[in-house]
Amino acid sequence: MIFKRQIKRQKTGFSLIEVLVSVSLFVIIVVSSTEIFRMVIGSQREAIANQNVQESLKYFYEVLSKEIRMARRSDGTCPQVPLNQMFVVINNGVSDVLYFQNYYSQCVTYELAVDGDTQRFKITRDADTDFISPNKIFIEKLSFILNNVGQPSVTVYLEAHALGDKRFRADMDIQTTITSRYYK
Fold it and tell me: pTM for this one?
């Protein structure tokens, strides 16, 4: 008896189904990781926009708070502020405008002003005018509410957002009340 050995041929490649399954899994992994990366980048942009708006508004509030706390009763130097009053608010059509006399007897004005395609905080001390917010922040609304009963105070309300892509606007609504420290 002669036994013939049967030689089995071994498969040395991949079937079409195995290739399709592996390519499909690879595509799913790549698309998922790309989407996650895109979401991370979007969140980072939104966080940076929020931080920029917050820092700009913080600076504005620090400057405003210092001057309001140190404001004094008018001695007649400022034409917009009646004698012995501390603060006056007038609406100019764009926003409220706050008038007062500061510690150095300068006539001070805080308001919104249009600057190109944005609205920014504008401060005027006597004849010197300057913007104190960057042109990348759009101030939607600025309003001042006076309380002249007892110790004078000013409540400041504003709405602002970062300019640029609407997906990363970083809208902010902030309100605070600042009390004068002038006791004379």
Answer: 0.74
